[in-house]
Amino acid sequence: MAELNAMEPLRTRIESTRLAFWPPPTIAILLSVLLAVTVAGEPGAPARHRTGLPGTGAIEGEIALPAHAAARTGEMYVSATGEAREIQPIPVVVSVQGVMPAAPGRPSGRLELTQRGEAFDPSILVVPVGAEVKFPNADPVFHNVFSYSRPRRFDLGRYRRGEFKTVAFDRPGYVKVLCEVHKWMRAAVVVVENPYYAIVPETGRFRIEGIPAGRHSVAIEHFDRRARVVEVDVPEGGVARVTPKT
Amino acid sequence: MIRLARLLDVSFRIKLLIALVGSVALLGLASLAVVRYYTDRQVESVVHRAADRALRALAEVERMRRADLERIAGRLTGSIRIAAALDAALGGADAGEFVDQVRYELTLAELQQGLVAFADRTGRPVVTLLNGERVADSEEGVDALAQAGADPEAVATGYRVFHGTLFAVQRHGLELFGESVGTLTIGFPVDKEVASRLGDIVEAPVCFAANGRCVAATPDVGDSALRDRMLDATRASGAVFTTVDDRRLALVSSPLPGAAGISAVVAVPLDDVLAPFDRIQFVEIIAAMVALGLALLLGGVLSKGLTSPIRTLVAATERVRRGDYDFSVHVPYRDELGTFADAFNQMTQGLLLKERYRGVLDKVVSPRVAEELMKGEIRLGGETREVTTLFADIRGFTALTEHIAPEQVIAMLNDWLELAALSIEEEGGVVDKYVGDEVMALFGAPMAQPDHALCAVRAALKLRERTEALNARRQARGDPPFSIGIGVNTGAAVAGNTGSSKRLNYTVLGASVNEASRLCSDAGPGEVLIAEGTYRRVAEQVDATPLPPRVFKGFSRPVTPYSVHAYRHQRPGSSAAASAPVALLVLSGLLLCPAAAGAQILEFPTLSELGVQYISPGGLVQVRPRLQTDLEGYFPQDAPAWHLAETDPFIAGRARLFVDVFVGRRVYLSTELRADRGQPARAGSLQGHLQQAFVRVTPVVGKNFTLQAGKFVSPFGSYPQRAHTAADPFIRPPLLYDYRTVLQADFVPAAVDGVFNWKNNPRFRPTGLPIAWEVPYPIGAMAGGGGRGWTLTAAVLNTAPSAEPDDWNRFDLEAPAGPSFIGRASYQVVPELQVGASYNRGAYMRPDVADDRGPVAVNRQLQETYALEANFTRGHVGVRGEVLFNEWQVFRTSGHPRDVSGYVEARVTLAPGLFAAVRYNAIRFVTLERASGSTDRWDYDVRRWQFGAGYRISRSTEIRGEYMINRTPGREDPSDNLLSLRWGWTF
Lengths: 246, 987
Description:
The complex is a heterodimer of chains A (about 250) and B (about 1000). Chain A has 3 helices and 18 strands. With about 250 residues, chain A is α+β, with helices and mostly antiparallel strands. In chain B, α2 (about 10-80) runs antiparallel to α8, α3 runs antiparallel to α4 and α12 (about 405-425) runs antiparallel to α13 (about 450-475). The longest helix of chain B has about 70 residues, at about 10-80. The two termini of chain B are about 45 Å apart. The relative contact order of chain B is 0.05. Classes of the chains: A alpha+beta (about 250), B alpha+beta (about 1000). The interface of A and B includes residues 69, 147, 176 and 180 of A.
């Protein structure tokens, strides 16, 4: 938390969606943190962007989240402990495409996609191009994490609890991460070339600020959907609305 | 019209010939048409079944392969890697990875052959693997299926042509995290191998055609002309019949399910199907030709034989017409014509005799009186009736004859008397007598004559005219003329025969007669005098002048004569003359009208009538043969279940010779020899059997008690009595008797008066279980008798635990399961109604029955049957029925299966020789309760309807037909409806 960068508050928000799988004390801590960040961040951080550099604008929009289809199959996923599991939900991510002057900072050593409780934690991870992500196994069971996605294809095989493998993501794009062993586990690693993106919360509303004015391609991506790219004119000091119909 | 009339104007002989030959030709044509009809039906059924079988077999092949395909498809669709790889490939990743992944899974699933294709959700192909190798994606074949089911969960199946190969395919949906990502189409090739398997099953060349191309075929299709024809057949709506390489084929195309434009074409070989029909047709044509030839020959002989006596008789009739009775005709037949000739001869003899009598009689009495005498209608003794009497004589005859030679006198007198007789007879009068030169005539007697007065007057006028003419001729010759006087009177007179019993004289007596005589004497020359009585009756028709009254000698009162001058009016014409031709016409029409056709053509003498029999002098020993032939046709009406063998229509013939021997009144022997192709009828070789041979003894003549032993048809229920007479209106027995023995002693065998006997009928396709494995024509002994309406019968006979006829002829220790006992009692309640009960007990299965573990010795398998029967007949209607309760032992089974069966039938005689009948039969098996408490359903219930009709054409021959409907409740098959036809002859 010391090196608070642009990605940090986003991560925190995502964590809030995972509360159910966290032990109660952690929930309490996280809740307090979340509240603190929200209260502190909402007026503060955006204000910095809004007043920010001249020649920048913002994008905001609202996205109807795709309804989850798990119920449709009628298939029940059962964990090793006998619990009924559902397909891991993954939020939509909206990102401005292309290399920008404001490149995302170098990734820290803490970029991790942990297999914990027979789920990926977090379910979405936005990393800059060139980031190396660790895939630690925190479960007493084996996983076999793999991806066939075009930006990065990998197959980590099986490894014990406490061990991890690292994957470097050199090309931008949406990488779907799956586990061959546990068919409900899924996660996405979004490899970005600039810091302008948003992970859309359950409300569906998002806002990205400090984007250099001008015409940009904005990609709206979700695990279950093809990427949708819309062209957006970001006015200087203004707000461009993106409300794709899903 | 004239030409037609001329065509019809041929001799009776030619007509007979034409009728005979025409009938035979018509019969031949009709039977050809029937054969043709059933050929077509059979071909249709075979073709349909072959096509059906091909599709079933294909479905079966597919079903076996589908399990494989589903296993592989399950592996592919269940793999998250496959789904993820497809998802990635759709997202733009390298499809090579995907292909590798799929290939890896296919290797694990050991799928080497076949089609594996992936498509996205819209059906666009992504990756296609053929036999494990990636090939160019083709929208052909895959997309149609992909779009076929909107629901990716559903598995769609069908057939597709892909890269020139036909595949039976399935489509499965692929999902990733509950989202459909695309589809998997997986299929196995329907290739030459599959086609060959189908070809082996249907025993016919098979070709799969898609869009006018042959995509797979049995090897025998090849590149031949057959292939082109088969491809052509896909465009036809029904079966196409063709000949390829001298083989007759029916090409039938069936579209494959779930595939447009793809069909399986089967070339059903028809040679085997048509062979029996060809044989039948060939035999029929030959038979028809022979029959035609025979008909021509027979017709020639017959018509000659038939017409020659007719011609003889016609010639004889002509002679009779000319008045020649003194001959007799000779017809060497003992038939109706012979009888006719005899009658004719008697007639001519009678005529001749009558003519002779008449000739004599006519000379001594008037022809009319003679006629009446011939008729025997004149009574001795008199009667008073009103008559008109005419007297005529020659005036001054004595004086006239003085100067003439006596011969000339007689000649003159005879000339005139001839004229007198002629005139009198022309007017219906009767010359009563000649007295010298006088003639006395009667009108109105002896035959009544309503206008006798007028007739007499006209006769008188005629006589006067003719006498004048005669006088003119005499004067011309130089002979002296003479004059006559005529007197006529009408009045009551006594008419009758007078004289002794040896010699009679019919005459009239009375005052009016005397008066007429006096008038005659009183009449002047050429004068016709009539008295008052006559005048009153003829005043309207004649011109007459009254003369002064005069008193005749012997009469008290004066008489007023009238002198008649002329006849005034013409007699009104009579219609009698016109009615004669009409009567002739009607008579000739009646004579020309033929008797029943059957009696003319189809009636043949029996063997006995031909003299083929032996009767000892005194008649103690009598041997009487009788020959019976049947021709039967069986035509199955519906196809058997597809897994059963075909049942072809067939025609069976049979000849039987019955010889009955009677020795005195106590001993009767009977034998039946028959030649046929087996019992039941089958396509075996022609065999001869001794079907019956038994002796029956009646110990006390006149008592109803008999003993019988041998091999015979014997008494079980009411059925057998009909088995031996024409009373059974059906060709096939009731269901109950399909296998069952019937015994009857008190009815004579077919040889005596029977015509048809079901025992000779083949079982067609046995339906259901036999209720008793007993023996037609068993060997055994029986005793029977009764009185006061009761009939009791008991018999011991062999049972044979087999349906093989060979076993039925054995009564040794090895063959049968032992003897059976049969008893029956019946009682005639009223003359129309008879009721009875019967009981049967015996083994139905041999003791050394084979278990599935091998031969085992088991106890005798006994069967017991109780039956009730009733028989009602009144007038043209008969109704009868029987119900049986049957139970038998089954080894290894504690319970005994039971059944209830019965039939009821009605028969009506519509016209002499013509009958119709209907019968309903059923067998109902009762649920078997085992000792363990479990129950088994003996599910062999059968119901049968029979509709029959027959016509006895003549004493010699009968035709009958029957339609039988069999149903096994609760099952589609087997149901073998059967049309049976029979033409039987007895001699």
